[in-house]
Amino acid sequence: ALRELQARGLGRVNARSRWIETAPIGVEDQPAFLNGAAAVETALSPPDLLRGLMWPSSDRLPQQAERDTRR
Questions:
Q1: Cβ(24)–Cβ(35) under 8 Å?
Q2: Gyration radius of the chain over CA positions
């Protein structure tokens, strides 16, 4: 996700926390959550950054799938 943020030109990741795996609460049939935080430098407004983060990356999925099958 952090690489994708930079690849989309949304900002630069200056630092990040370690990843912490936590069990879901109140839901039994769900895998664990992976939590973390990042310090990101961006020129975008909060609404523009959120729009950029929420925009689907479906244009990149076929290439990613092709790379994954070659492993």
A1: no
A2: 15
